[in-house]
Amino acid sequence: MEKMLNKKSIIIIALVVLIAVAGAVLAASTIVNKKEATTVAATTEQSITGDELDALLEQQPMFADGIKYYYASSSEQLSHDAMGASVFNNSDVNIQSFVVAFCAYDENDNPIKIKQPDDKNDGAYIRTISYDLSKVGGDKKFIQPQESFDNVIFYVTNDPQIVTIKACVKSYTSVDNISWENPFYETFKNVYSGKQLQPTQIQ
């Protein structure tokens, strides 16, 4: 009986030791993974090109899949020129609200401070617009997975004339209140905001 108890004690001790070792390995692995992720993010931030960033953005849960420039003179529905974008829901949730960021450039690929008609200041190199489909009216209350929404409009002045536009989704919130923040938004700002476009970045 005493030998059996000793065997049980040895087995229990061995199990405790194994669990402790496994926990230590997992903790160490987590620390290493965090360090690696930080290193990758830092490296990406320093070395990524516009074309590489655009390719990464197109793999995200939500991204701008089309960009347009609208002239007020071409439509009676537009009071001013406008930058436009369509966004694609690449996630598995129904997206209710989202934020899109724009950067703009002139004919020489120089950055333009985006100014809206009612702005009292000189505008900014990057501007955002928020959409909440539950509040804008109409029948569409959310964007389903694998569906596009092509009515993102940001009114602008036409001086200087915008020729090229870059856009990305900054964030979104689903109908179930699941939120997503774009981990590459700061990279988007660093690559495009106030920077001249390189030839391979031009759309």
Search tags:
29% strand, disordered N terminus, single chain, 203 residues, five-stranded antiparallel sheet, 3 helices, globular
General description of the model:
By secondary structure, the protein is an alpha+beta fold. 31% of the residues lie in helices and 29% in strands. The protein contains 3 helices and 8 strands; from the N terminus they run H-H-E-E-E-E-E-E-E-E-H. The chain has helices at 2-47, 50-57, 185-192, and strands at residues 62-70, 82-89, 95-105, 111-112, 127-132, 148-155, 164-174, 179-181. The strands form 2 sheets. Strands 3, 4, 5, 7 and 8 form a 5-stranded antiparallel sheet that branches. The longest helix has 46 residues, at 2-47.
